[in-house]
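User: Could you check the structure of this?
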Amino acid sequence: MILTALAAAAGTLWGFRVVGTVESTVMKRMEAATPDLAVNPQMTGTLVMKKLPPIVTNLAAPANTWVRLEAALLLEQKAALGADPLVGAITEDILGFLRSVTAQQMEGAAGLRNLREDLTERVAIRSKGVVRDIVIETLVVQ
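Assistant: Sure, the predicted structure tokens are below.
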């Protein structure tokens, strides 16, 4: 019984020592890493998110498969003021593209990455470089 109590006390002390060491190490590393954070000047302050209207369409294959895409465009603040015609053209372009895609092409992480790359490329071409990126908020396939 005494041996059990000694073992429990020793284990508790050892646990407090380990927790203290881990906390101090983590705090030192966080303090050392904070000044090294670099901010990309292209991605601060001047970019605006412009939501696209939800896009609902059928896919090329299988026949009864539908997709709903909600996305937003990341563009310069100056260009966002008159972006309504551009948003309409991009929405139509994405709609036409999604009609040519099959459900198998969008399967898995690689399919989603390929879809995002294709959409980003189409948006960049349609906007002539005004739109920096596209953010896929939701993608539902049924």
